[in-house]
Amino acid sequence: MSTISPLLTGLCDDAALFPPGNAPLESAVPAHFAHTDSAHADLVGPFVFPETRLAELPPVLADRGDRTLPLSLTVPGGTDSVPQALDKVRAVDGVRLVALEIAVPIDQSVPDLFAALEEIAAAAPGVDIYVEVPRDDRRPDILASLPGAGYRAKFRTGGVVADAYPDEAELAAAIEAAVSRNVPFKATAGLHHAVRNTDPDTGFEQHGFLNLMLATHLAGAGAGTDAVVAALADRDGARLAATLGALPGDAVAALRDRFRSYGTCSIGDPLSDLTALGLLSGHESSAVDEGTHA
């Protein structure tokens, strides 16, 4: 029986290959399968994979048995790179494409983006399409166009340089814009812990994934921008966990319909944080840590 609550089900996409974890592919794939066999299996989403490395997958999957690897395929080259990526992924035995995460090149107009997305959706029925919404003046128009087309948003919440981290006000504005337009979204990069923190090695201010969850709930409840910003800045993990843990079922369902998942390069890190905060029980992170560090 699963011990993962609806609040946390499918929350953590397995991005073990990405910085700062950078796990070797030959160990990351077996680790993903181990997670999906564990008591915390329901916490884990698809395996996030860069389309530029698809040629490396077949030998790693040769010993998979009857397993199928669910892929959320990142396409940093944008919509022009998707048709070839789809051809490549269809040629790999043992994978199931569940999502595309498509970047928007700096020179692509909003009309051209959505014309290309329409063709991609027709070529990949049943696949969730996430648009990595850029942090420029195209963001409002892209977010306004997503719901009618049925696509989802992807927000970057960090990276390997300080400028990659949006501050609380910018991230709050993105969350409120998505929620007000009924655009489901996921987050990626920089969410290394459950709670807002300062990285001791880099000094970067890092968002917490529980902060994003509470901010999303408050945005949906019409709490106002100040409350959303305050939730993103809160460093009291016990308070965040208690507030989220006390949400009624309908509020949890609404929250997770909006905030679908986030990418983590180490499933062991959120598992450890959530256990320490009392949102999970009976899990030993050391037994499932894939050897990467978020």
UniProtKB/TrEMBL annotation:
Q: What is this protein called?
A: Uncharacterized protein
